[in-house]
Amino acid sequence: MDGVSDTEKPEPDLRVRLVDVGAELLALEGAGVLTLREIARRAGVSHGAPRRYFPTHLDLLSAIAHRGFTDLAGRVTTTLGDGTAPARTQLTELARAYLRFARDNPGMYELMFRHDLLESGHLGLRDTSLPLFGVLVELTARVRPAADARAVAGSLWANLHGIAQLWRWGSLRLATGADDVEPLLRTALDAHLGPEAGR
Questions:
Q1: Which end of the chain, N or C, is more open, meaning fewer C-beta atoms within 10 Å of its C-beta?
Q2: 36-65: pLDDT as tens digits
């Protein structure tokens, strides 16, 4: 016997379990309750246990956000399929997938884009988030080859992010009287990409 009790041995899957609990807590109660101590309590481990895998609160938040980016990346890949649809069609579907993700995962969505709270260069966050923006840039360049695709894509992303947040808060519904986000999405795409052919 090595003299170490079962409760003292690190669980091989504890890191994953802590991220699972953090993601669940985020979905239920938002980023404000995501402390190492609360996640440890809900995971049923001592408050010091998370530090074996996440030395700081930022490390744990970044790991949880990484899961969100991985989920969003998977949705984008599924949405774009084999990539043979026209670029404008792909951009429209990507934008819809983005808005759906924001609607369905408000806590995670808020955390993912709070780079002021996250160590974005740590735990592979940039490796997951920047390629997503790269897809947006590449599709934008195909729709508007003469434009600065990175600037247009950044402006479009900011517009989509604003739609997602303001819709969630109820501000856009109040201001526009809209009961569906689709007309706002179409207007944003037209503003950044030009009117869609045939409309």
A1: N
A2: 888 989 999 988 888 888 888 888 888 899
